[in-house]
Each structure stands twice: as structure tokens, then as C-alpha cells.
């Protein structure tokens, strides 16, 4: 069983509300399918290598930011990758079309809302 001490884990290891961390929202990784799990992992910064205990643990993802994020299965931002656009979510990363359950090891925020050639995942859950 994984023990995490904060409700939201950011790149600086401080639990903060999205409004405090970044007015443009965040990327949230969940430990379980359908956006469940006791401690979602939230990211606001431009690049992150997931920590031990976070790496290879995400089963669903939601992007509530104004930017696209690329999810990599390698800690050095390489190998297989998928992009999730703003206001999109994927409720099960292990679906047969993706095979990405418990695979995310690093993430990169794109400079805008485009995926710039990376394969896209997720469905739109919110309209501006």
C-alpha cells in the first residue's frame, strides 16, 4: 500500500490549491480508474519526473489546465508518449487502445493547447 502524506502532490512537494499554484489549472493523475484514489497527483510545472511511489501508478488522468500535457512511460521524457489536451480526461489508461495503465513516469507541459504531433488521448469533459 502506498502512503502519501498530502492530498495533492505538486512538483515542489507542497499541497496547494490550483488557484494558488497556477491560475491556469493543472494536470491530475489518479491512482485508480474513473478518477478515484485517495491522493490525486497534481502537476502545474512545465516538466516533471514522477517520484518513486508515483511513477508507474496512474490509472486515469484529467487535464483542467489551459495547456496540453505529454505523458511519457520513460523517466527521461522518451519512449511511448500520449498527449492530453486542455479540458480532456481519460478514465482508464489501460484500455486496449492505449495500454498505458501504471506506465506514466514523466510529464511535459506543452507551450499551448496543441499536441504538436504527439498522439492524443481523452475525451472533452468541459466546454469553455
TrEMBL record:
Q: What Gene3D superfamilies has UniProt attached to this entry?
A: Crystallins (2.60.20.10)
Secretion signal span: 1-21
Could you name the domain of life of the organism this protein comes from? Bacteria
Please indicate if the UniProt record lists Signal as a keyword: yes
Alphabetical list of InterPro entries matching this protein: G_crystallin-like
Is the keyword Signal in the record? yes
Provide this UniProt record's keywords sorted from A to Z: Signal
Q: What is this protein called?
A: Beta/gamma crystallin 'Greek key' domain-containing protein
Amino acid at each position: 500500500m502506498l502512503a502519501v502524506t498530502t492530498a495533492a502532490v505538486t512538483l515542489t512537494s507542497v499541497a496547494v490549491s490550483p488557484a494558488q499554484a497556477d491560475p491556469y489549472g493543472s494536470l491530475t493523475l489518479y491512482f485508480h480508474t474513473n478518477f478515484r484514489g485517495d491522493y490525486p497527483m497534481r502537476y502545474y510545472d512545465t516538466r516533471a519526473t514522477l517520484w518513486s511511489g508515483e511513477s508507474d501508478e496512474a490509472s486515469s488522468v484529467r487535464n483542467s489546465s489551459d495547456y496540453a500535457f505529454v505523458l511519457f512511460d520513460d523517466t527521461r521524457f522518451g519512449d511511448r508518449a500520449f498527449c492530453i489536451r486542455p479540458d480532456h480526461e481519460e478514465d482508464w489508461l489501460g484500455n486496449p487502445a492505449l495500454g498505458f495503465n501504471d506506465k506514466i513516469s514523466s510529464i511535459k507541459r506543452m507551450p499551448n493547447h496543441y499536441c504538436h504531433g504527439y498522439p492524443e488521448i481523452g475525451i472533452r469533459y468541459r466546454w469553455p
